[in-house]
What does this fold into?
Amino acid sequence: MWTGKVWKEVGEDSLMGYATKTAKKLYAEAALPNAPPGLGKWAVSSESHKGRQYMIRGGLGSM
It folds into this structure.
C-alpha cells in the first residue's frame, strides 16, 4: 500500500477490505446523474469476490 511516502506491505485481508470499499464507491458514482452507462453493472461485478480478487491481482501486477 502506498502511504504517500513509501510502499508498506499489508496482508491479503487488508487488500480485500480496500477492494470492497472501492467497489462500494463505484455504486455511489453510478448513482450520479452524469454517471457513464454501465457503471452500476461494473459495480456489481467488482463487488463480487472474484471481482475483488481481480482488482487486487491487477494492482499487484502493476508494481
Notes: The radius of gyration is 13 Å.
